[in-house]
Automatic annotation (TrEMBL):
It holds the Pfam family TSP1_ADAMTS. The lineage of its organism: Eukaryota, Metazoa, Chordata, Craniata, Vertebrata. One of its GO terms (biological process) is extracellular matrix organization. It is found in: Secreted. The keyword Repeat applies. It comes from Poecilia mexicana. PANTHER family: A DISINTEGRIN AND METALLOPROTEINASE WITH THROMBOSPONDIN MOTIFS 10, ADAMTS A DISINTEGRIN AND METALLOPROTEASE WITH THROMBOSPONDIN MOTIFS PROTEASE. GO terms for cellular component: extracellular matrix; extracellular region. It comes from the Eukaryota. SUPFAM superfamilies: TSP-1 type 1 repeat (SSF82895). Keywords: Repeat, Secreted, Signal. Its main location: secreted. One of its GO terms (molecular function) is metalloendopeptidase activity. This is PLAC domain-containing protein.
Length: 230
């Protein structure tokens, strides 16, 4: 019985050992170039059986603690493309584009280099299509009324009428039945001191008299001299 206990103690003693440092696998480097760091786990352990180890405080290991970091990827980075932020969509409605600045940067100093120094195939795009919202339709735009054609009584006044897009450019997409009037009748206050004469641009005054239209205010005004006394 005593011999069996001694045999068991000797067997167990083979698995008991002094504390020692255990190191894990190195991690990936924090950078692919221009110098980075990689890390690993470092623990102070003691084996207490064939299949079990116990983690101890670092002070339990008497030897120097192995490093848990080391430098890596110390070679210089090659030149690379740097894309800045996208601009607003232009124009503000309808089909448009966003733009951004794309620079070739030195991997080592960060200085801007000629585009030829960076890989041609890897250049980021500097323009993309965009469409924020549908543009408002063209509208009829009218100008102010001009002067009345008659200095006394009834006449006509005119104004400009244009179909304009939201950009202010002329358009032909306005609805014709919504077109505002470009001409309308007007009336000027008569001045008794003004001479009575036919409007120079009117050639039909003899016909007005012949067909007895002088009793109509418009024709009496346009053909004042001809209609005088009738």
């Amino acid at each position: 019985m005593r011999q069996q206990r001694v045999r068991i103690l000797k067997t167990n003693s083979r698995f008991l050992s002094a504390s020692s440092w255990w190191t894990g696998e190195w991690s990936e480097c924090s950078r692919s170039c221009n110098g980075g760091l990689r890390t690993r786990e470092v623990l102070c352990k003691r084996r207490i059986s064939a299949v079990e180890e116990k983690v101890l405080d670092d002070s339990a290991c008497s030897s120097a603690r192995p490093s848990f970091t080391e430098p890596c990827s110390n070679h210089s980075c090659p030149p690379e493309w740097l894309a800045l932020d996208w601009s607003e969509c232009t124009p503000s409605c309808g089909p448009g584009y966003r733009h951004r600045v794309v620079l070739c940067k030195s991997g080592e100093s960060g200085d801007t280099l000629p585009d030829s120094k960076c890989p041609k195939n890897g250049r980021p795009t500097s323009r993309v299509r965009c469409n924020l919202q549908r543009c408002p339709p063209p509208v009829w735009v009218t100008g102010p009324w001009g002067e009345c054609s008659a200095r006394c009584g009834l006449g006509q006044e005119m104004r400009s009428v244009q179909c304009l897009a939201h950009t202010g450019q002329p358009s032909n997409e306005c609805l014709e039945h919504q077109r505002p009037a470009a001409m309308q009748q007007c009336k000027s206050k008569c001045d008794a001191s003004l001479p009575c004469k036919d409007v120079s641009t009117v050639a039909y005054c003899p016909l007005v008299l012949r067909f007895k239209f002088c009793n109509r205010p418009y024709f009496r005004q346009m053909c004042c001299k001809t209609c005088q006394g009738h």
